[in-house]
Design a protein that fits this description.
Layout lengths: L11 H28 L8 H17 L10 H14 L5 H14 L4 H11 L7 H10 L2
Helix pairs in contact: 2-4, 3-4, 3-5, 5-6
């Protein structure tokens, strides 16, 4: 049984501790989100080894996103990540293409509609639509 009480009946220390915890969680999410956004710049690096390592970071990031991730609140962030990754899905290096494809396979689960919209917008610009078509097949079910 869960006991609920009006906020004005809770001790001030409980409210202060709770608000500090919420503030820390929000700051941690923003910091993490900011770090991932900065990592996307590394995909432009000349070192393919480093670019592959960053795709592994992205895969880990997307696998750790909780079910209750606020997709609407982080909509702009998700869209920017999808756009950036889709650019590198057309990389001249097939190893990078494959690594980015794997990232987008897991990333697309967060908000398939956003990803499909972005794929449709850029697919015609890619050297080959192979990976775009594969992703659309997965996420347009």
């Amino acid at each position: 049984m869960m006991i609920t009480a009006p906020l004005d009946l809770l001790p001030a220390t409980v409210l202060t501790s709770s608000s500090k915890l919420v503030e820390r969680i929000v700051l941690a999410r923003r910091s993490f989100t900011s770090s991932i956004s900065s990592s996307s710049n590394v995909l432009d690096d000349s070192s393919d080894e480093l670019r592959i390592a960053v795709t592994n970071t992205f895969s880990t990031f997307f696998s750790l996103i909780p079910e209750d991730y606020d997709k609407e609140f982080f909509k702009a962030h998700l869209q920017a990540l999808y756009r950036g990754l889709l650019i590198h899905l057309d990389d001249p290096n097939s190893t990078i293409q494959e690594a980015v494809y794997k990232v987008l396979e897991s990333a697309g689960k967060i908000h398939p509609q956003y990803l499909c919209e972005h794929i449709e917008n850029v697919k015609h610009k890619h050297r080959s639509s192979l990976y775009c078509d594969k992703l659309l097949t997965i996420f347009k079910q």
